Amino acid sequence: MTPEESSQHAANVCELAPVVPVLVVDDAARAAELAVALVTGGLPALEVTLRTPAALDAIREMATVDGGVVGAGTLLTPADVVAAKDAGALFGVTPGTTDRLIDAALEAELPLLPGAAPATEALRRLERGCIIQKFFPAEASGGVPALKAIGAPLPQVRFFPTGGVSLANAPDYLGLANTVCVGGSWVAPKDAVAAGDWSRIATLAREAAALPR
Ligand code: 3PG
Fold first, then answer.
1. Does position 51 have pLDDT exceeding 90, yes or no?
2. Radius of gyration (Cα) for the chain, nearest Å?
3. Residue 44, preceding peptide bond in cis (omega within 30° of 0)
4. Is the dihedral of CA 77, 96, 129, 166 positive or negative?
5. Is the separation of the CB atoms in 76 and 97 below 8 Å?
6. Is the pLDDT of residue 1 over 90?
7. Which of 193, 194, 173, 190 is nearest to 182 (CA)?
8. Which residue from 17, 13, 19 is spatially nearest to 162, judged by alpha carbons?
9. How much of the chain exceeds pLDDT 90, in percent?
10. Could you tell me which of 68, 7, 10 has the C-alpha nearest to residue 39?
11. What is the 3-state composition of the chain as percent helix, strand, coil, each rounded to the nearest 5?
12. 136 CA to middle of ligand 1, Å?
């Protein structure tokens, strides 16, 4: 698979719905139920961040859920890439990017959404074949105006903004020509997950899935 083909696979994941839930899972035993609630609500692509000891087990559990496309986020090292792939992740997300991470993802054949914020970063990633990139931290990096400005010289790069994105500001991002979908944790609030309130999560997912783009 060429780097461009691999990046196109990552772009296809972003095309599935307007929002990718960014999940911090503490209890792998609840992961499948959480995935079912989100997928039922209309959000098939799920990013499980490797920030908790339960994350890889959560990916294994969620990978069994019909209709779900489970990826791994917060990939910081080549070893994270391999562990994510072995757990069944279908795509990977990094907050920022290094060449080692891109090489590891190509080697593991894990479609990657590499983090890039300003134009230089975006251009560097494009040189490595990354036509879809994560814009992170979106709000702190200038938000919608910054993303719009990057789109003028680099319209061939499309973005997945995350970090401070919410139901309220998501439409502004989704209205940009260079935004494929957004990511956010708001669709799976920690208290709702802890309480097993899957119907609230499914309602939040439905609201997010209905966002126009
Ligand atoms: C992250 O990696 O934490 C995501 O960007 C989610 O950010 P959010 O919690 O602001 O949605």
1. yes
2. 16
3. no
4. positive
5. no
6. no
7. 173
8. 19
9. 98
10. 68
11. 45, 15, 40
12. 8
Q: For residue 10, what are the contacts with CB-CB under 8 A and spacing of at least 6?
A: 91, 111, 112, 113, 132
CA atoms of 123 and 13, how far apart (whole Å): 22
What spacing in Å lies between the alpha carbon of 74 and ligand 1's midpoint? 10
Q: Atom of ligand 1 at shortest distance to CA of 164?
A: 10
Say if pTM beats, i.e. exceeds, 0.90: yes
The answer to whether 47 is a known catalytic residue is yes
pLDDT mean across residues, the chain: 97
pLDDT value at 213 more than 90 = no
* Active-site residue, selected from the candidate residues 47, 61, 85, 121: 47
Q: Could you report the per-residue pLDDT of 75-95, keeping only the tens digit for each?
A: 999 999 999 999 999 999 999
Residue 63 has pLDDT above 90, yes or no: yes
Is 127 catalytic? The answer is no
Cβ(177)–Cβ(18) under 8 Å? no
For residue 139, the ligand 1 atom closest to its alpha carbon is 10
